[in-house]
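User: Show me a protein chain along with its predicted structure.
Assistant: Here is one chain, sequence first, then structure tokens.
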Amino acid sequence: MKHNVYESAVMINAALDDDQIEQIISRIRESIVNNGGEIREVEKWGRKRLAYVVKKSKIGYYVFFRFNSPSNIISKLERSYSLDEQILRYLTIKLDSDAVEYLEKNKITPIVEDTDIPSAKEIITPVVEDIDEKLEESDA
């Protein structure tokens, strides 16, 4: 069976503890994998204020799952979303090759703290001092 690339956006009730949210995320992962899917990426956006109240919640926790799977598991996955009371909204779309290429090309790399990289203050201070010197010279 042909596997397609899908993206599933899930809004979880943000009133839950972080552990409970992680349990829901891992349950969704397991559901995808157990039904023959392969997780490509899980993108956690975190808690965001909603534009309007959704199921009596003003804040939602957003998670995006990108995965390869046969098309028949989407209905099972969305059925499990609708049965879970802690999932406020969801949307699953099929990504075409252009969208997959765009996402791969524009993937955000995590920032790793490195002691060799100067801080912003270390970069800006010499520039400000140089400007101050030039201003003093022009006043004289």
